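[recover] target loaded
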């Protein structure tokens, strides 16, 4: 008989139980800077390397695309063993190139990122009675014309006693971990500790050359090292070596293992997020009132009058009436580039489905920051498998709009290649700049091959399968016949496209507050984890886009303009224009320190890629809503 046990699981992570004296290994990640947004490999600078050599740690697809390069480091601790004045190494004399690149990294405010037991090193700073939190620490600092390097690190490791409960746990050291259960065999095992915090204080210390002459890695430096973050004493000079050392202090903490990420995910500005949602609800209520007026008063009144008349009176009324009733013979006339419109709508629904699914699972905790790259990997997987939906929608729409039952294979291929092709062009252009800069942000050739295989072997077949299924779907029959000769459209009083582009301000109004936090997470290195708020905002955005497009389509038909197809797409899709303008505003006013044309070009390139995806997703919502609205509206009109 199997025993019943209680347990918990934090998605993306699991507890390590270390005994006293077990070895803990610190890993290093790419150097990052909010001034350049170009990551570099840690060992591109003359830092100490492990005795056994540098080894790459396992990286998932999302980590590689984000520019993370996790490697082993020489920093090693023993669990619950305090150590001071640990000598690491003495570098070779700095060459001219090394001295120059160190100065550049300090000027560009590059941060060094360390990880212990999957926790990033965090640094606390006091400024104006406020405590600031930063992940990582700077390479060095410039005072007047002198550059100082932070060559001594003081680590504080917060640990919590392993609590023996009826929970399956993990025991092991480093990355090797073994699943153990709470049975009789584990009762005699000494209770260990779990790492629940990792803090670092960087210092600049001038080592005595005579004292380090014969020291080897991990030997004890014979003089005391006072780590004072407010003073610096290790100036960088060309032709002179740099010495490195560290110390570590262990401190027992009340923080429990499931709560160890709270310091990184501490939500600030919760009231602002609620204000964002309230703002969105106000916009939705306003638009819903307009839609209600259209449906309950205008349309129903017109239809009631129209249906009460006999046939002769209807014919006479048709000559006198103006508005949407006069375009009954042209409203379903196929638009220009109908197939391309169907492709864009289909890819938009795939992107929308990817976004909703990713944010939903992230809100449930399945894509926690403890699993680096999980969010991006999840987005790619959802996008690929939703190819079935994209192919189905594209073929069904094409058959409905163009009345063409053939050519499903061609339409499916276009859907499979359209957005991935746009992404390939943009990312390859940006990648060439990163390659030229020798940045870890450049996607490796092997990763490009993996992405191509995922697209060709999974995404394309699934899109073709969806297209094939779409050929068997019931085509939506139009309720009215289309005239052979198009009706002349009266001259508009004002440009209709100006109204379409202006309509994007309403969806943008529901999004812009949350957009600030997302941009800060991407470009300022802040952790974004309020996916519950984001999920609600996305749902509200979908509703606003649908309402905006419906109102604009009705206004278009009321001025006897039957060319509503593309306008319904861009009425909601034009929100992307305002997001791109906001991105430029963010670049000018919030990323003032961004240096160099390459960094600005990378920022604008990634922003362009983002707004194209948003345009397709929001445009698809608006188009389908308008299409179903027009079909329902003219299904209510009696036509001989």
């Amino acid at each position: 008989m199997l025993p019943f046990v209680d347990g918990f699981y934090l998605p993306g992570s699991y507890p390590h139980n270390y005994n006293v004296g077990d070895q803990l290994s610190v890993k290093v990640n790419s150097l990052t800077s909010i001034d350049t947004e170009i990551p570099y490999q840690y060992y591109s600078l003359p830092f100490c390397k492990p005795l056994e050599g540098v080894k790459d740690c396992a990286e998932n697809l999302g980590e590689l695309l984000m520019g993370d390069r996790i490697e082993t480091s020489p920093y090693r601790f023993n669990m619950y063993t305090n150590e001071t004045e640990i000598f690491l190494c003495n570098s070779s004399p700095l060459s001219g190139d090394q001295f120059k690149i160190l100065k550049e990294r300090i000027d560009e405010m590059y941060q060094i990122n360390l990880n212990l037991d999957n926790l990033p090193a965090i640094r606390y700073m006091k400024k104006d009675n406020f405590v600031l939190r930063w992940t990582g620490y700077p390479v060095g600092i410039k005072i007047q014309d002198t550059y100082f390097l932070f060559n001594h690190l003081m680590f504080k490791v917060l640990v919590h006693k392993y609590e023996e409960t009826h929970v399956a746990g993990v025991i092991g050291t480093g990355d090797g971990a073994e699943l153990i259960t709470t049975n009789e065999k584990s009762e005699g095992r000494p209770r260990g500790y779990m790492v629940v915090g990792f803090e670092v204080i960087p210092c600049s210390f001038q080592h005595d050359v005579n004292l380090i002459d014969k020291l080897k890695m991990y030997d004890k430096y014979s003089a005391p090292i006072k780590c004072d973050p407010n003073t610096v004493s290790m100036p960088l000079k060309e032709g002179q070596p740099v010495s490195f050392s560290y110390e570590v202090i262990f401190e027992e903490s009340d923080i429990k293992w499931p709560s160890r990420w709270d310091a990184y995910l501490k939500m600030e500005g919760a009231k602002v997020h609620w204000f964002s949602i309230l703002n969105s609800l106000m916009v939705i209520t306003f638009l819903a009132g307009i839609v209600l007026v259209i449906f309950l008063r205008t349309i129903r009144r017109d239809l009631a009058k129209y249906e009460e008349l006999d046939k002769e009176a209807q014919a006479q009324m048709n000559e006198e009436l103006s508005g949407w009733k006069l375009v009954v013979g042209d409203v379903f006339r196929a638009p220009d580039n109908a197939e391309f419109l169907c492709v864009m709508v289909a890819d938009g629904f795939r992107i929308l489905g990817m976004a909703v699914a990713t944010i939903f699972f992230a809100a449930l905790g399945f894509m926690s920051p403890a699993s680096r790259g999980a969010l991006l990997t999840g987005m790619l997987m959802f996008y690929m498998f939703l190819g079935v939906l994209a192919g189905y929608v594209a073929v069904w729409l094409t058959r409905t709009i163009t009345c063409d039952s053939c050519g499903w294979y061609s339409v499916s291929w276009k859907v499979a290649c359209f957005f991935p092709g746009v992404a390939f062009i943009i990312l390859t252009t940006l990648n060439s700049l990163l390659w030229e800069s020798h940045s870890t942000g450049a996607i490796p050739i092997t990763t490009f091959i993996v992405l191509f295989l995922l697209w060709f072997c999974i995404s394309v077949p699934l899109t073709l399968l969806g297209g094939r299924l779409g050929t068997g779907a019931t085509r939506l029959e139009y309720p009215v016949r289309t005239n052979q000769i198009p009706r002349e459209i009266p001259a508009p009083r004002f440009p209709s496209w100006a109204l379409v582009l202006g309509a994007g301000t309403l969806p943008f109004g529901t999004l812009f507050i949350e957009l600030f936090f997302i941009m800060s997470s991407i470009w300022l290195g802040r952790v974004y984890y309020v996916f519950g708020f984001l999920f609600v905002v996305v749902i509200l955005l979908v509703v606003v886009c649908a309402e905006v497009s419906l109102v604009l389509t009705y206004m278009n038909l009321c001025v006897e303009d039957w060319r509503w197809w593309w306008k319904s797409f861009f009425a909601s899709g034009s929100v992307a224009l305002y997001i791109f303008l906001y991105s430029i505003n963010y670049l000018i006013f919030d990323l003032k320190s961004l240096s160099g044309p390459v960094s600005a070009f990378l920022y604008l390139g990634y922003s362009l890629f983002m707004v194209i995806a948003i345009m397709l997703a929001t445009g698809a919502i608006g188009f389908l809503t308008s299409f179903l609205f027009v079909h329902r509206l003219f299904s209510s009109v009696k036509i001989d």
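[recover] notes: Residues 62 and 373 are 4 Å apart (CA to CA).
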